Amino acid sequence: MSLSVLDITIILAYITGMLLLGFYISQKASKDLQSYFLGGNQMKWYYLGLSNASGMFDTSGTMWTVSILFIYGLKSAWIPWLWPVWNQVFIFVYLAIWMRRSGVMTGAQWITFRFGDGKGAKLSHIIIVTFAVISVIGFIAYFFEGIGKYCTSILPWDLGTNILGYHLSSERAYALIICFLTTLYTVKGGMYSVVATEVLQFFIMTIACFSIGYIAYTSVSAEQIRQVIPAGWSDLSFGWNLELDWSKTPVPNVNDKIASDGFGMFGMLFMMMLFKGIFASIAGPVPSYDMQRILAARTPSEAAKMSFSTILVMYIPRYLMVASFAVLGLVYLGPEMGKMGANIDFEKVLPLTVNSFVPSGLKGLILAGFLSAFMGTFAAFVNAAPAYIVNDIYKKYINPHAPNKTYIRLSVLSSILLVLVGIVFGFNASSLTKLTLWLTSALYGGYVAANLLKWVWWRFTGNGYFWGMLFGLIASTTKLFFFPEIVDIYVFPVILLVSLAGCIIGTYIEPLPNREAVKEFYRKTRPWGFWGPIKKEVMLEDPAFKPNKDFNRDASNIIAGIIWQMAQVVIPMYFMIRENTQMVIWSGVLIITSVWLKKFWWNKLKDADAE
Fold this sequence. Notes:
By secondary structure, this protein is mainly α. The chain has helices spanning about 5-25, 35-40, 45-55, 60-70, 85-100, 105-115, 120-155, 170-220, 220-230, 255-260, 265-285, 290-295, 300-330, 335-340, 350-355, 360-385, 385-400, 405-425, 430-445, 450-455, 460-480, 490-505, 515-525, 530-540, 550-575, 580-600, 605-610; strands at about 160-165, 165-170. It has a two-stranded antiparallel sheet. A hairpin with a 2-residue loop joins strand 1 (about 160-165) and strand 2 (about 165-170). The longest helix is centred in the first third of the chain and has 50 residues, at about 170-220.
């Protein structure tokens, strides 16, 4: 890619600015672990929300979203429900409040808060720590590969060299530099540095999104789009089958990609996504940077506002950029992509589009924005995992009375160690891809059942949690190695049932241990669900205690929240493809659901802190 002196200056100024900002505020992080990992619970919710949005603004994930919009059209808005993407709605409606009431530092420490400190609780604690650390190593390896490919596609210099007989490619040289610089300010300033730099990074990325949106909107007409898309591409609605036929377009090979994805039976896919989504969302967030920001909020109500603001500030800019790249790719890159066969390389859309359409100066800003997306997500993971090593292993089991300076130094060392291990995985990505996939995918597969029951069932124990996670791990691993050709979503019910069996068996191995700890959890968290015996005991001990009767309100707010979020996804898409009637309708939906949430959710948040 050709870059002017102005573009290069902007990119270098951005990197320098990130380092200076991170170091400038790093002194606040050195007080204790609470300051280092949670910012001392003093940061305002909107800063945490912007930081969380920046951490989720992953360039590789965004480019995947570009690819599915290219292939599936407006129906692609449903596909992220696979995760599900609307788990943030469950979090801001009620889960963030429940989590923040614990007052703990990590997801693993929360397990002790929920189950007490018996044998089963310790097993559960260990498996969550393992989950968190392995996940972070896998993601660091993933980002190491992604950062290298991105930098070589946009920067004009070849940094490849030979070191002691080993050839260091330009991709890996760039990746090492960016990972080193990001790790430097992350370990120096902890949560304070991460949040401050991510807030700045978010604004840079947002400017980049709207800049690309302006370029795409003025470069592509509605008629040009209609000429290159198949019938039904611009429809959000769907039937049992997908029924998109690309054979008469410039990219007929997209039909092969649809077949390989296994999404042809779209109605079945949607039902499975909805089934999985409800269970996975009630289970709550995995122990990662998202949970860390919830625990870092000042109060339960601010934790909820933080998660709400993450959706509010991120979705419209991000999907405007996604739609922009998709229409530019459809109109101008179709013939070239048609020559690639079934393995269409959508990563080429980004550098080709930027190089072809973006003027000097603005190009440097946009490239700095994409670099921000990588660095923000990388920093979020680097800051999240060491808390589990230091707080949940070293402090809990090895040296519970060490001075704060020891804990901070160990946090820095464990951050560096995790980055190094992740980079080693990244260097050996070709040989370790399957292992990394097994470690992360298998652990995630067994997560849902145990983490759903921990919120809603009084009898559920630490033993049940451990065996449920373990059974889910075994089931997911079996699927990964013996049935790799089956789309993951279709075997989710089987994995859920196997994991649920482990939960039930493990729970009834012994009578309920740590009954007082369970009562304290219920008294402090106040969840709804199946808490009959525990609720009666708590109310006998404390007649002033008021149980949670907000299930119906929370359920209706979740439905409104999912529709509210969906509106923010499709409005930029309809805007970019000039479907103005649909855009106006969904804008009305956004306004109505916003008013609903203001009345029945936002206005009720003051009660969360009072309780």
